[in-house]
Amino acid sequence: MRLMLLGLIITLFVSVSFLNKGNAGITSTFVRSEWPSTDIPIDNEAFAVPKGHNAPQQVHITQGDYDGKAVIISWVTPDEPGPSKVLYGTSQNSYEFTAKGTVSNYSFYKYKSGFIHQCLVDGLEYDTKYYYKIGSGESAREFWFHTPPKIDPDAPYKFGIIGDLGQTYNSLSTLEHYIQSGAQTVLFVGDLSYADRYTYNDVGLRWDSWGRFVEKSTAYQPWIWSAGNHEIDYFPYMEEVTPFRSFLERYPTPYLASKSSNPLWYAIRRASAHIIVLSSYSPFVKYTPQWEWLSEELKKVDREKTPWLIVLMHVPIYNSNEAHYMEGESMRAVFESWFVHYKVDVVFAGHVHAYERSYRISNIHYNITSGDRYPIPDKSAPVYITVGDGGNQEGLAARFIDPQPDYSAFREASYGHSTFEIKNRTHAFYHWNRNDDGKKLATDSFLLHNQYWGSSHRRRKLKKHYLRSIVEGIYID
């Protein structure tokens, strides 16, 4: 047993040393064969309307509080409001509790939405499976969800990361592959339906079809929403100029739980992770509401309880693709020094329709007269990962800048999704899975050591028997 433990420790040391040193960045030589990047026809079974009069549709849930003991359940009834309540309990077909919600609708040009229900279900127990029922009579529908484990530094948890999804056949492949991954919550980095690619009434209809399209996942586990440019919905020619209207009407966020002033930026804690969602399309310069909120939220992060600090945004800070190159520079200039100071573990972004992962680097020392003018290796910096590859109709961003910058570790223009699997307070596994024209194929993966507990002075605080349990558990999968 001691020899096995020694071997595992050596393997771990070599793996972490390799990751810390890095190697030459890789630009994948994989050439994706052509596959339609057109939207699935509106009458396709992927968008099927549930049977029954006024049956609830477009069901989705998200976290409803700061610590994971509540969910917000949302759905649409197409014909009439119907009951805006949720029956729920811990036994199937036996509902002990009832929660009452609200109902609203809105118009967009001449399109009129269905009746949008939003219901907060709180006071839940951790690590418990709940069944819930919405609707009435024969048209009622039943679903379930599983609450996360209680906040704990060693709570294992598996997140999925999806961005720029849309509703094409590629999108369908991404969604099906994600469902097979076993992940428990989606971190969504913006650009949901791409309904803004349509005009007039079709804008609203494509929001409806997308809600039915993703329901096979969103009704059963939380999706943590961040907004992208395709959620802005700015259409002066239709006299529709209220930004993010459709998104905010349909996809609530628990922003009040983190004392945010706006639904587009907020934070949650889930298992052993503290997750911060930022808005790339809202003001973020000094003294703006988002800047002020983030300044305070970062001070609240307790790495003794939630060691994994994750940031979501839509526009990537580091990107070596010709598409949207340098668009994240203004946000980088404002927030990167905070990411380094607070030792953010990973920043996920979308927007660029390709996959890319960086090394730990920063560019915070340059000023107009002196300092490092280019990104440099920085052990305190996050890993930056772009996953804007969900499958939308705009197609892939296939033109990378050549030569590959030193900060870029791996990049490929393909469709896919990622998973981030936390094992304990010190280590997590990351995987990017290429769709490969219908087949799920793990393509890029690495072991990530935690920025807080991975440092030597923090590791010394762990007891020997605990270190042994970590090392023996690292290579479970």
If strands are numbered along the chain, what order do they take across the biggest sheet? 1-23-19-22-18-17-16-15
The radius of gyration is 22 Å
What is the architecture of the largest domain at the second tier of CATH? Answer: 4-Layer Sandwich
Number of domains: 2
Q: Helix share of residues?
A: 10-25%
Cofactor: Zn(2+); Fe cation
EC number: 3.1.3.2
Pfam families: Metallophos, Metallophos_C, Pur_ac_phosph_N
GO molecular function, one term: acid phosphatase activity
Task: Give a concise summary.
This protein has 477 residues and is an alpha+beta fold. 20% of the residues lie in helices and 26% in strands.
Structure, explained:
The chain is of the alpha+beta class. It folds into 2 domains: about 10-40 and about 155-475, Purple Acid Phosphatase, chain A, domain 2 (4-Layer Sandwich), CATH 3.60.21.10; about 55-145, Purple acid phosphatase-like, N-terminal (Immunoglobulin-like), CATH 2.60.40. It is built from 9 helices and 26 strands. It has an 8-stranded mixed sheet with strand order 1-23-19-22-18-17-16-15, with helices on one face. Strands 14-13-12-24-25-26 form a 6-stranded mixed sheet. Strands 2-3-9-6 form a 4-stranded antiparallel sheet. Strand 10 (about 130-135) and strand 11 form a beta hairpin. The chain is globular. It catalyses: a phosphate monoester + H2O = an alcohol + phosphate. Its cofactor is Zn(2+); Fe cation. It is an enzyme of class 3 (hydrolase). It comes from Ziziphus jujuba var. spinosa.
